[in-house]
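Figure 2 data, in text form.
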Amino acid sequence: MGKPDLHRHVEVSDNHGAVASADVTITQQSVRTARASLRAAAGHLAPGSRARLVDAVLDLPELHNGGRLEAAFPLGDSETLHRLLQRCTDVTTRPAGSTVLLEATIGPGPAFGRAADGDELGSYAVFQ
């Protein structure tokens, strides 16, 4: 019998509370697959909030050795798509109603929480 899947809830917050979150299920098979549902709070968000969520998901310790990603996020969320294109390879997308379904290979990338100049980008929390 195989190992059970891991479930994580990731939240990105700013000074006013949680602004974006994701529910992630990670398979424990030989090729790890992360299935993530990404969403952001309604209304105006500071630039980079959605990109920080992508980083928080891809920087989960269980994904440090790479694997596959299957993600769902709102159609029109260009910031999320752009960051996924930066952090992943072999990316394919397709619309499904008001949602984008993305499949990709998780690639190497910078650790979450630091911009190129070393400044803090924000905070996130992971819940099991």
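Caption note: The chain has two helices and seven strands.
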